[in-house]
Design a protein that fits this description.
alpha/beta, ABC transporter transmembrane region fold, Rossmann fold, 6-stranded mixed beta sheet, 19 helices, 10 strands, about 60% helix
Length: about 600
Amino acid sequence: MRYIKLHEETKVPIFRNVVWAVRLIWQADWRLPVSSLLEEFCDSFLGVFVKNILFLKTLLTIIDSHGDFKQYFRCLLWFLIVSGLLQFGRWYGSYVNRSSVKLVLQRLNNKLFQKACTLDVSCYEDPEFYDKYQRATTVLSDGYFHVLCMNLAEIVGKLVSLLLVVATVISVNPVYLLFMLPAIAEFAIEIRKSRKAYQRDLEMTTNNRVKAYIKRTMFLRDYAKDIRTSNIFLVLLQRFEAATKANLVVLREYGLPLFLYGMLISLLEKFIPTVGVYAYAGYQFIHTDKMTISGFSVLLSAINSINDATWALSMCFDEISEMALFFSNLRDFFEYEPQITDGALEAGKFETLEFRDVSFTYPGAEKPSLSHVSFTLHRGETLAIVGVNGAGKSTLVKLMMRFYDPTEGEILYNGKSLKDYKLESLRGVFAAVFQDYRNFAVSVNENVMCRDCDEDDKQLARRAMEQSGAWEKISSFEKQGDTVLTREFEEDGAGLSGGENQKVSTARLFARDFEIAVLDEPSSALDPVAEAQMYQHLMEATQNKTVVYISHRLSSAASSDRILVLENGEVAESGDHRTLLHDGGIYAAMFRKQAAAYRTGKEAASDA
């Protein structure tokens, strides 16, 4: 049984996609298509026409006409000169091509990364998006653009050479062109074959993504201990084998049609033309006086050149047709228009943030994550948002920072809709520490400052880490803040614990200016002592600032000006710590339960 089955109609404008791809390459570096054309044209012209036809025909004509050695020598000299020029053009084109292709890939990858940064957050929660993104990156990583340029250049070179060879055949006997007619049908079959191959690859995309994920997971440090201390490896192995078997099913399904297409192409391309030409030429040579030895030799060489050229052309058309189908994924990716778009206003100094009857449902979800949420956050206020997992706390933050737009209702910044503001300006108001924090394989300083660091930046990063509690560990490294996190690319890199990584991530907040601090479980990986120290520093750093806390640990909520208790996506309670305890509702029950658990744990630790 297939692991994953994709149903997708493939009707892609091949010519339009090829033109689009060539335009994209030209914008990246025009030297790549030009050098490819020079290299392939010189190679095809030299190999197909000059060497196999022109030189042979000229020499045999001199021999048939009993010419002298001077004619033969002049012919040979001209051949050497022309061949040398063509070979030099080929070498020069190849030299430019090698340097240009790297520049094109660099610029197109940068374009791809820049586009990825503009995508809506919702794209990253859509499996279909990941499939399309993987196919888009494959186009670049597998060098499709280079191959496209070489194939287009080869088509031009082979066509010019082919026309000259055909002219030579016509000069011998036009009848021989009839044997080349089956090759015309070959191109239509090649296009059908490439579409079939693309559909095969398309159906294997998700399976290949599953396999790539499992391969990557097996070598990641974050998963090493879990894999070695549980049976999860067997689960992953079963998933890998299931994806592999699914691909085998796809390959078997498409194998016979692709094989038959290949057989038919070979019949039209090789068998019929070759047998027909040899038979008719042999008949003329034996039974008529219209075929000379030189003419017969040139004709056979010409027919072989035509066969080779048409085969190369069919391969080029086959690859270009298949690549054009893959280019459609890259084109769709580049032409994707985000749904979260810029407004015209700059976000000024923060005064109020209002949720006005806001509801939100994730794409594809059956029920809303937030329902009719209304509250107003004022400048200088500390707001704690609490609730059990799945209550909608993180969703509320995503809406606040406009990663999503509400399904219903409106969110207002200083009395105006979030949609009216420029995204970069609006998000620049916030300094956020998320529960799914991530640090990157760059230096600690760069992780904190999120940019290349000069000496002033390094001092600022150090103060930020001192406030987050990360500096005690980072200062123990030989390179201190210049130490690269993870050992993936640097032998002297550093591996940090979960809590230490979270402290580094939190230091970003201390290192920047902001209007609103959003702390989404900022101490989830910390012990109680480190948590208390961090909150003390946070309180100092956010004094007279607006702060939004999201936490399961209600100790941070106790000192907040106001607490929102979310339950099933709705605001179940609202008030300060003392009021909510007095009311004896959801918050009071959660707080007392956590307090009891903390006291029990503390007593157990003292007994030990």
